[in-house]
Structures are given as structure tokens and as C-alpha cells.
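User: Second chain of the day. Same drill as before.
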Amino acid sequence: MKIEDLAETDVLSFYLDQRHAYLELTVVAFGGAHFKVQARNHDGSPIGVEFG
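Assistant: Same format as last time:
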């Protein structure tokens, strides 16, 4: 799956830890399928997050 495939999904939950080193999204796609997306930078640097 490509992250672009989740463009038209609804976000159920969003978590970004206080250091911005770990991000987790739970989304529901068209048809009811649920997906959990997790991201972490291997070097421990903060993850930049913007909403649009």
C-alpha cells in the first residue's frame, strides 16, 4: 500500500508524542477497512507535521 492510497480516508485517531519522535494515525477507508499508520525517525530527530 502507498500512503497516497489513504488520501480519501477519515482519521479516527492521531497521536504524536511530546518529542515529535513517533507518529501514529488510525484511519478508516472507503468500504470500512481500518488502517494504522506508524512513523518514527531512525535517528530520533523530530517528525514535522502539518495539517492542510
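Strands lie at 10-16, 22-28, 34-40.

User: Great, on to the next one.
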